């Protein structure tokens, strides 16, 4: 029976656009994340940020909103303080991303911005000093705005060259400090996040569906080219692909629900089938034909995909949903809530066994090493008068999900890391709120960017430290050797 490996990487994950701030500092260019406003009470669907057209784009770009991601949680200026508290929690890894527009401010620049590279060099060196292994995402929901405006985002094949140049620059520069690379965050979420993931404005393309899949094809090709380059450059580098788990369950055992669920899930496996198995599967070609989608896929590209598959699979897991044939279609956004599950105030259902199921499924299908790249729950935490946060709900969430991961490992799944989203509070991706908090460490900023910026350890901080120190053996709460009196 497999067990958690001795060198297991316990840690957390953040993204540059949600943490760094300093959006114009040291020659950084404007990125898609910089124009996401905070609108009190708005849901992601109200913001239309991920399903963007030119009118909304102009309104957000030139509006007088508050833009939380421009400030983030000041990670750019305060990174040593953040790394210090993570080291105090004994984390072994931090997954973070590089801001593309810090390295190539316009995306199509001839030379990289040395100031941007220097920042990450210092950051990775400092993490190494503190024994924290970096896992680095090259593209996490932000791209230079210029690439949207001048090129139409990833619909344009020129993006392949710009992104590959960026990826090669990172690998060359950081190959000695960074072993694990995730090329693109949650590559399968295009139907939820066409703007953040692909930089597409829907009124600028003739056929939105077709444009998304062609853009995805360009991301596949760019991923394979970067993988090819990385493997030639340094054989110790590990280059992975990433899915947000969106596998569903049938709402009932009615044959039509079961069949729709099967077809839906297969189109979710599509992304990893291409990047891990190395080819477009037959069911995807059939789907494209049935839906009038005609992709431009060259023979040489097929070979490239075949020869440069991903070294590992990174998975983010938060919630699970069901599908019902009478209400849902093949659209990945149409789901029915599972009536057996509770949810947080943002409607994200809580289902630890879903993590067991997806990791076991991916293992059975691919047999490549896997990591849990994100897992966590957002809450509006309450800071007590004496600066404590009693977040037993968060402890319970992680406890149950870690138990689910252990079950998958016991049955054979090769999982080498668990990254909580996020180890300290950062700006929410979907709503740009600060008050949707995920961290084990409370960071004192509010939705409008006010606050002291002080850190306060939540109860979960001490609990997670115990989990790490015991390599996942001790997950009980209250903690066995409780030290949360300080
Ligand atoms: C993941 C993203 O899908 O969900 C993160 O990769 C994001 O960037 C996380 O922060 C949680 O979503 P949200 O909207 O609650 O921040």
Write a concise keyword list for the protein shown above.
single chain; 486 residues; alpha/beta; TIM Barrel; 8-stranded parallel β-barrel; two-stranded parallel sheet; 12 strands; 40% helix; globular; binds 6-O-phosphono-beta-D-glucopyranose
Radius of gyration: 21 Å
Approximate shape: globular
- The arrangement of helices and strands along the chain is EHHHHEHHEHHEHHEEHHHEEHEHEEEH
Instruction: Report helical residue fraction.
Output: 25-40%
Ligands bound to this protein structure: 6-O-phosphono-beta-D-glucopyranose
Instruction: Give a count of the beta strands, DSSP E runs of length 2 or more.
Output: 12
CATH superfamily membership: Glycosidases
Alpha plus pi helix count: 16
What CATH architecture would you give? Answer: Alpha-Beta Barrel
Structure characterization notes:
The protein is built from 16 helices and 12 strands. The chain is globular, with a radius of gyration of 21 Å. It has a single domain (9-469), classed as TIM Barrel, CATH 3.20.20. The protein has helices at 16-19, 44-47, 54-62, 75-88, 100-103, 114-129, 145-151, 158-174, 194-198, 208-233, 255-277, 282-290, 299-307, 352-366, 392-410, 459-469; strands at residues 9-13, 93-97, 133-139, 180-184, 238-244, 249-250, 312-317, 322-323, 370-375, 415-421, 441-443, 455-457. An 8-stranded parallel β-barrel has the order 1-2-3-4-5-7-9-10, surrounded by 5 helices. The chain has a two-stranded parallel ribbon with strand order 6-8. 49% of the residues are buried. The mean pLDDT is 96. The protein binds 6-O-phosphono-beta-D-glucopyranose. Residues 15, 18, 141, 185-186, 244, 316, 374, 378, 421, 428-430, 436 line the site of 6-O-phosphono-beta-D-glucopyranose.
